[in-house]
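Memo to structure team: turn this sequence into structure tokens by end of day. - J.P.
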Amino acid sequence: MYLLYADDSGVVFDPNVKYSVLAGFATFESHTYWIQKAIDFIMEKHLGRIDVELHASPIRSGKGFWRSIPKLTRDSILIDCLSYIKANYPRQFILFGAVINNKRECVSEELFSQLTSRFDKFLKRKFVKNGESARGLCIFDKSKMENQYQNWSRIYQTLGNRWNEKLNNFAEVPLFLESSISRSIQVADLIAFSLYRYFEHFDDSFYSIIKDCFDREKNQIHGLLVVE
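Reply from structure team:
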């Protein structure tokens, strides 16, 4: 089974924020253990401990626990994690993301429908091209959108989404985890944050590392959508 770990970045209802992001990565279920070990290794390398959450925004800005950590160390943690993603694409990581301008209507639903549709089509291609009976499960960070995401997913699986496409390859409605206990959710947070920094603040210091890791076929990118 393929797992899609996803998180959001940006504030849909904040008039001062232009973009909202929902993004993350798909991986085969057996890879999650090795992802956790790799992130733990990076944290041990830079901090000497692994009991710290990888949360991109406070790491970059130096808030809370990170206030006493030198900026060079904080930046190195983020860059090392993103470089690990790049080095293991596409074997362990296939990235997916949607970036929507907040002036549009129904931004939250459009983000969710775009991300889930693209993941479903990725699973379908696995079956059509390789004969691989690939099923998928979305796992999100805990948020106030939990009930809404599950309702939308149920509708999309039975009636179809806005494009009348059914999510035929999902094993279940989305699950939700506390980010503090899941390294994979923390990695999804870093991916979403990297996209947000690039489109909202024209900062490509993080996005530039992973920009070629989104789901694609030859020169066609399937895994990333940007809607102005």
